[in-house]
């Protein structure tokens, strides 16, 4: 099975591979760099789901022989006066049927969010890399690996988001 992903970020490709491999055999993952036209740090449900959807549709369009297109987008969800980070996946098949799935969310420290809202940094990765002296943390376990003291990695969050998006595909009798 060929699964095309609208990203080359290794944490996303790994999470997608692990999710599909639970339900399908011989899963081949191909990552493609795609333009989403949404900000580097999406804020609010609408921007995040749009980013995930566009990534999935673009990867299906440019990928060769894809059985599925997958988009994963991370962004902030404001709740009361806090911001939570979520990964949203959109999985679409060759017939144009697609579903969303959501990861667990973690609260982002207020000062980190403020630096992005003020325009000091463009996205979360830049704030985290600057504070912790990491390099490309978004591709290496993610901020969540630092916050969870290495227990949870970003690929785990992507895995859950993609698995949730696959639920309607693997239970078609009750979702159709
Ligand atoms: O190459 P692409 O696919 O664009 O991957 P990305 O990681 O840059 O793009 P996203 O828009 O999905 O992520 C939004 C930002 O959140 C950052 N980030 C860092 N650690 C994260 C984590 O644990 N979970 C979610 N997002 C994280 C990520 O690096 C980005 O700066």
Automatic annotation (TrEMBL):
A Pfam cross-reference name: NTPase_I-T
Look up the record and name the cofactor or cofactors this protein needs.
Mg(2+); Mn(2+)
Cofactor-binding details, from the entry: Binds 1 divalent metal cation per subunit; can use either Mg(2+) or Mn(2+).
Domain named Non-canonical purine NTP phosphatase/PRRC1: residues: 6-170
Gene3D superfamilies given in the database record:
3.90.950.10
- Sorted alphabetically, which InterPro entries does this protein's record hold? ITPase-like_fam (IPR029001), Non_canon_purine_NTPase (IPR002786), NTPase/PRRC1 (IPR026533), YjjX_NTPase (IPR050299)
Give the SUPFAM superfamilies listed for this entry: ITPase-like
Q: Which UniProt keywords apply?
A: Hydrolase, Magnesium, Manganese, Metal-binding, Nucleotide metabolism, Nucleotide-binding
PANTHER family named among the record's database cross-references: NON-CANONICAL PURINE NTP PHOSPHATASE_PRRC1 DOMAIN-CONTAINING PROTEIN, PTHR34699
Please give the subunit comment from the record: Homodimer.
Similarity comment = Belongs to the YjjX NTPase family.
Q: What does this protein do?
A: Phosphatase that hydrolyzes non-canonical purine nucleotides such as XTP and ITP to their respective diphosphate derivatives. Probably excludes non-canonical purines from DNA/RNA precursor pool, thus preventing their incorporation into DNA/RNA and avoiding chromosomal lesions.
Protein's name in the database: Probable inosine/xanthosine triphosphatase
Give the source species. Answer: Ignisphaera aggregans (strain DSM 17230 / JCM 13409 / AQ1.S1)
């Amino acid at each position: 099975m060929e699964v095309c992903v609208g990203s080359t970020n290794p944490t996303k490709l790994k999470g997608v591979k692990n999710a599909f491999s639970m339900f399908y055999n011989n899963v081949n993952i191909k990552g493609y760099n795609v333009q989403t036209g949404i900000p580097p740090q999406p804020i609010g449900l609408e921007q995040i789901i749009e980013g995930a959807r566009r990534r999935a549709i673009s990867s299906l369009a440019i990928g060769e022989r894809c059985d599925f297109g997958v988009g994963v987008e991370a962004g902030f969800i404001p709740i009361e006066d806090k911001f939570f980070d979520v990964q949203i996946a959109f999985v679409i098949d060759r017939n144009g049927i697609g579903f969303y799935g959501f990861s667990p969310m973690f609260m982002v420290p207020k000062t980190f969010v403020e630096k992005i809202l003020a325009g000091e940094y463009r996205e979360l990765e830049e704030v985290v890399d600057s504070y912790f002296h990491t390099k490309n943390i978004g591709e290496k376990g993610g901020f969540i690996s630092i916050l969870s003291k290495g227990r949870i990695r970003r690929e785990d969050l992507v895995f859950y988001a993609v698995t949730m998006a696959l639920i309607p595909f693997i239970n078609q009798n009750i979702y159709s």
